[in-house]
Amino acid sequence: MRIGMSQPTEPSDQEHSANTSAEDPASGTAAAALPRDARAAASETPSASETPSASESPGASESPNPMDGGQWRPVRPEELLRKNVPADADPSEPQDNPKLIRQRRQELEVHLRSCPTDQDAFRELAAIYRKEDRPHEAKRVLTEAVRIFPDDMSLLWELEEAKLARSLQQFREVSDLAARLKTTEVEREMKRSREDWAYRRIEVCDARLARDPSLRQLRLVLAEAYIDSDQHDKAIKEIDELVQFDEFSPQAYLLKGKCLLSLGQDVQAMAALRAAGLRRAVVGPLPIRRAALKLLCETAERLGLDLTLEHYQRHLAIVQQDIAKLSAAGKKKHA
Fold first, then answer.
1. CB neighbourhood size of 294 (10 A)
2. Which CATH number describes the domain made up of 92-215?
C-alpha cells in the first residue's frame, strides 16, 4: 500500500454495468449513439485511474516508486557485486578513490571464481589492473578470459595490449636502473629487456596483420622492431610494402635508409634518405625530413662529399627554420 495514496473502492455491479455500456463502443449503446466529435471527446477524457484523487496532495503523483528512480531507485545490475556502498555515493567516485578501486578489484576476483563466464567482469578487472599500472596482472586475467572465450577478438586484442604494456614496463624499469648503475649484470638485463620489447612487438604485429592485412600502419611498427632486434633484412622487406603508399612513404624511406646504413650500403641508403627528406612529389613531415637530412649530412661528410654536404646542409637549415617558426607559433597560441 502506498503512503499518501487513497485506496480505490470496488464498484458495485450496477455501476460496473453502467460504465460498460457508456464506455464500450462495441456494446452499441450510449457510446455508439454519440456524435463523432462527442465520442472523440469522450475517448480523450482521462479515466479515473489516470486522474489523481482529491485526497492526494499535489506531490502525491510523484510518490516513491521502485521503478521510477529516486529514493527507491532499483539496484543496477553492475551494482549487484558491490557491498557497503553508500546510497548517495557518486558513481564516478570509485574511479578516483584508491580504496573503492581496491574493494571493487577484490570483489571482481571473488566473483570470477564462482562465475568464470562473466566476460564483462574480466574486462573490468583487467582495466582496473591496467589503471593501477599492473599490466602483468591484467595479462593474467585476460589470458584466462581468452581461454574461456577463444573466439572473442576484442578480448584477444586487449590481451595483446597487456603483453605489450608489460614488456614496455620492464624495459623502462631496466632503463632507469641502467642510468644509475653501470654494471655488467645491469647491461645484460638491459639487452634482454630491449630484445623482449622488440620480439613482443613483432609477435603482436605479426598476429594482427595475419588477422587483418589492411592494418598497414603496423608494418612500420614491425619494421622498427626488426631494426631494434638487428634483423635489418626483414625490416626492409616490411618497408618495401609501404613505400608505394604516400601516407607511409616518408617514414618508410627514412627507416629503409637507416637499415641500409647499418648494412654498410651507403649509396642505396642515401637514395632512400633523399626520398624521405627531399622528395617534392610527396613532402614528408618536418621531423622526418630533418632526421633524413641529418643522416645525409653525416654520410656525405663521412664519405668526403663536400659539395653534396653543402647542398644537404642548406636544405637542413631551411627545415630547421620552419620547425622553429612552427614551435614559436604554437607557444604564442597557447600563451
1. 17
2. 1.25.40
Q: How far apart are CA 154 and CA 3, in angstroms?
A: 50
Q: What is the C-alpha to C-alpha distance for residues 205 and 260, in angstroms, rounded to an integer?
A: 23
Q: Closest Cα to residue 105, out of 75, 139, 131, 143?
A: 131
CA distance to 19, 115, 125, 144, 150, per residue, from 112 (Å) = 58, 5, 10, 10, 17
**Three-state DSSP class for residue 132:** coil
- According to DSSP H, which parts of the chain are helical? 13-23, 30-33, 36-44, 98-114, 119-131, 135-148, 153-180, 184-211, 217-228, 232-240, 249-262, 266-277, 286-303, 306-334
For residues 243 and 177, give the distance between their C-alpha atoms in angstroms, rounded to a whole number: 38
DSSP codes joined into one string, 289-315: HHHHHHHHHHHHHHHT-HHHHHHHHHH
pLDDT > 60? residue 18? no
Q: Is the dihedral of CA 254, 256, 259, 265 positive or negative?
A: negative
C-alpha cell at 148: 574461456
Q: Is 169 exposed, middle or buried (0-12, 13-18, 19+ CB in 10 A)?
A: middle
Q: What is the pLDDT of residues 165-203, one digit of tens each?
A: 999 999 999 999 998 988 999 999 999 999 999 999 999
If you ran DSSP here, which 8-state letter would residue 6 be given?
P
Query: What is the CA angle 275-281-282, rounded to 5?
Result: 65
Q: Of all helices (H) and strands (E), which one includes residue 212?
A: none
pTM of this prediction exceeds 0.70 = no
Amino acid at 85: V
d(CA 279, CA 332): 31
